[in-house]
Task: structure prediction
Amino acid sequence: MADANEVDERDKIDELMVQVARGRVALGVAAFAAPALTVRLIGMGRGADGGRDVVTRMFAAREIALGAGYLLSGEEGRKLWARLGLGVDSLDVVTGLRARKRVPLWAAAGALGVAGSAAALGAAKVGRDVLR
Result:
């Protein structure tokens, strides 16, 4: 049986995961609705670029799916969505590290900070789920 501290810690982790999921949905909706503006605001480009807009909308769909999947799932479903998010966020960290020299430092640091934080939180959630 779990003690009160373990239950509180699980609740905090899930609470943070819910906030990340909400952020994913919000970012996804914004990126889908206005891909050029979203890319410009995060420092990844300027001007018209049809190909970039397509890829940004694909990213947006992924974020909406990951966020909504987590939010709409029960406890068991959230275990799967957390693992999927951890995989995606880990790959985003690798991508950010590889692209570091091709984007402004502040943009790379921001992207790596967000992806790294989401990956760390996802790892905490997955680890907690495995140890239960």
